[in-house]
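B., you asked whether I could sanity-check this one before it goes into the benchmark set. Here's the sequence:
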Amino acid sequence: MTDRFHLAATVDRLIYGDEETFRTEDALTVLDAMPKPTWRRFLPDIGFEMKSPGRSSSGAAAGFGNVTVRGEDRHVEFDSRGYIRVGQWKLSRGHRYIDIEQVAADSLDDGRSARINFTIRWNVIDMEIKVASYWPLPGGVGIQIGKFVPWKKPSED
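And here's what the prediction gave me:
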């Protein structure tokens, strides 16, 4: 197992290195550090995140007038794949890819998640970045969906 400091530096180099390419060796280092899939590999990759505003209370305060106090927002997140954390990154291994996501980011923030794609024999194909689309619905509700788009190509440096 690669130590976590080395692995975090490797992921930093993958993300923040060259703007158009990444080192194949770095992608394979991350792959080797990931736990091998278990029986869960037969389950579909399911994940969701839900946020809703917290409760609020209002009333009158002497000297201030009407006051409204909001509670904390409610947040529920589920991911069937599991992940390991190294530095500022969460890494998860899929069927033929590795997802890289910043810990402090929302899963649908543009440019805060990346995916390294592999062939069936674990040869590196490319790296994609997640972008989000938002569709407003009536009543102040909306649906936001993230999708991965091409970003970087591997190099043999």
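One thing to flag: The mean pLDDT is 85. Otherwise nothing jumped out at me.
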